[in-house]
Structure formats: structure tokens, C-alpha cells
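User: My notes are a mess, but here's the protein and pyridoxal-5'-phosphate's SMILES. Can you give me a structure?
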Amino acid sequence: MNSRRLFARAQKSLVGGVNSPVRAFKAVGGTPVFVRSGSGPHFTSAEGRRYIDYCGSWGPLIFGHARREIAKAAADALRSGSTFGAATEREVQLAEELKAALPSLGLVRLTSSGTEAVMSALRVARAFTKRDLVIKFAGCYHGHTDSLLVAAGSGALTLGAPDSAGVPEAWAKTTITLPYNDLSAVDKAFRKYRGKIAAVIVEPFVGNMGVVLPHDGFLEGLRALTKRNKALLIFDEVITGFRLCYGGAQTILGVTPDLTTMGKIIGGGLPMGAYGGRKEIMSLVAPLGPVYQAGTLSGNPVAVAAGLETLRLLQKENPYSRLGQITDYLLRGLSEAAEDARARVQINSAGSMFTLFFGKGPICDLAAARKCDTKKYGRFFQRMLKQGVYFPPAQFEAAFVSFAHDKKDLDHTIRAARRALRGL
Ligand SMILES: *Cc1c(COP(=O)(O)O)cnc(C)c1O
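Assistant: No problem, the inputs look usable. Here's the predicted complex:
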């Protein structure tokens, strides 16, 4: 069955034909690709077409698809029992690895998704500070937990309004949404809601409005402001964890958050999340303390085995400098292609994550990202797809280069972009 027929069939039984909305290609038009299998930097569609993949399942696949050692580790674990609902040694090992790589993690709890990790971290932050309000930044995505599906209120410093149907006003009002990179807005919010703000949550390098980088001093400023106001700083490193170095963005930046949330790469492509931080804060989580949080499949043996093997490979092969080099090579090619086509494209990147924005730079917050031409991105996406290159199916997303991409893939991508950008 081809993708078109599968999509028609899927819509009769799955909501919108998919299990996560952006997979439905609403942002770029056309029929979503149904995937049959993946290997290295490629996947093959239901109709047997091969694509070079820059979506990478939205971040987890730093080694590409079906890396042999990771698949074997997961398969071996599965044969020994898929879940016990009781503690296993490998969970301890994974927590130890995370702690060693991110010294800010005094204690860790594993979950089954990034959303769960964020939701739980906020609960702990509220319990620790005995305060209710949380500051987040417009364009940062922290999963689909209710209190964070919130748009900025009508004034920049007002409490939030629901950004999804079904989120109670009252919950949205626990969130203050501010522009990314705007430290003075954060300072003003702390003054206005003195003694009421539990935490500031931020993607240290943003992936979820497309790649957007922190200005010099922004994260340091958040650290200073949260400290001064006795609020917690939470780094959402679900994407950046082990993507930019062996550790998190915090490792590179030298800014230490109180709590960190993780996911994606640490599960090696299986469902996984984690949150952790200072011992005195995490000691509030059950069974040590009064903050309830649990999960039937938390620390699942198969996911933990895949995650551990991924971390082992990352240490053994230390792919980060090569990932940086091949991403630079790709982005130089894409940028020259855009220049030659006189296409107005702004490329933001951090390590092996990048976004081609169809608009004028610099793109340093959601307001700037929103000015980009999403229709143009949609056309670019479709033209690339026709040439066997799969970018993320929406403008406001990060693309990922994996350790499996080689020069041939990159050159093919650059040639395809030359054709795609012409007369866009
Ligand atoms: C993907 C993502 C999440 C949510 O993780 P899920 O595993 O999809 O629930 C949270 N925060 C950030 C920064 C993410 O990129």
C-alpha cells in the first residue's frame, strides 16, 4: 500500500491519521510519508522510496536509524523480559551515567517521555518553593502538559491564556509567557509577581521555534534573577541533552540549572525521559518526599538498554566534532545555494541542529520566526521531498544531522536544495 492509500485508511481509525499532529503535514501540505523501515541516515517509505532523513524522529536519532549495537542491546533486553515493575541494575547505571555527564543532577528520576519529565519537574519546583507561577518563553516547547500549553496574555507581563482547547483558564493563569532573549521582561515579571514565581523553564538552545540561540548573557541573567528571587531555574534539555556534547547545553554554557529535564537521545529511539537536579529539591519526590510521581513503564528495561548503549557509543566514538564539521559543510552548501538563487534564507544552527528560516534575520525570538514565509518553507519542503530529502514537515522545527550522514548524502542534499530554491 502506498502512503496516499495508507493515509486515507489511517484517517478512518486514527485521529487525523496520525499519533502526533505534526506528522500529518498540515504545515507543509501534501500527503504524509508512511515509513516502512530505516537504516543509517535513510528511511524507506511504504512505496519503497528512499529518503535522506533530517528529521531524525525529532531528535533522538543521533546515530541514525537502526544502529546495529543499539538495536541489539534493545533486542537482548527484550528477550530477558520487557518490564518488571521492579527495580533493575541498568536503571541505576543509566542514572549514574547521566549524573557523571551532568554534574547538576544530584538525583534523577526516569520517565517514559519528555512531557512527563517536564510535568514532574514543575510539580517539584512548585513544591520546593511553595509558589504556583512559572515563567516560560514564547516559542519554547516543553511537551503537552496543560499548564505549559499557554500563549502570552494580552500584555507581555500578564498571566497566560490557554493555547489549546481543554486547558482550564485557571491553569493557564499559572504561567507567564515572555519573549525569548528578553531578560528585562523576566526582571519585570519577578518584580510584578514578587514572591510568587516558582520557576523559570527554558530551552537553553531552542529547537522548537526552529533553532534559536540565546544571546550572550541571557541564560546567565536567568540564573542570577532566579537566584535573587529564590525561584528555580529549569533547563529543558530534552533536545539538547547529548546533542551538542557529551552532557547538556549546560556543559557548554557553564550555567548550572536547579533542575534539568531530558528525553530523546537518552532513550536511543525508545520512549524515555528523565528529570533531576539538586538533592535537596529531588528529595521531595516520592518515596523520599510528598511530591507524587510514578509510572508503570518508567525506567523500562528495553528503553534503558537502548539509552545506555547510545551513551556508551557516544563516549566511545565521540561524534561531536565530526558532527559539527559535516553540519558546517552542509550549511555552507545550503547557504551558497540560497545566495545563488537569491532566496532570502536565514540559517540558525547549534552543533548538528539547524533551521532554514525563509525570512529576514536575525531570528532570535518567536516574533521574528513568525515573520518567516511558512508557505515558502512548505514549497521548499515539497521540492526537497520529491528529490528524496526529508526535512522536518514544518518551518518552526529543528533539522538534525546524524553521525550516519556521509558526504554523499550531504552533497545530494545541497544539489537538491540548489534546484528547490530556484524561483521558489
Ligand atoms: C520533544 C520535547 C519535549 C517533549 O518530549 P516528548 O517525549 O515528546 O513528550 C519537551 N521539551 C522539549 C524541549 C522537546 O523538544
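Residues 149 and 163 are 5 Å apart (CA to CA).
User: Great, I'll file this with my notes.
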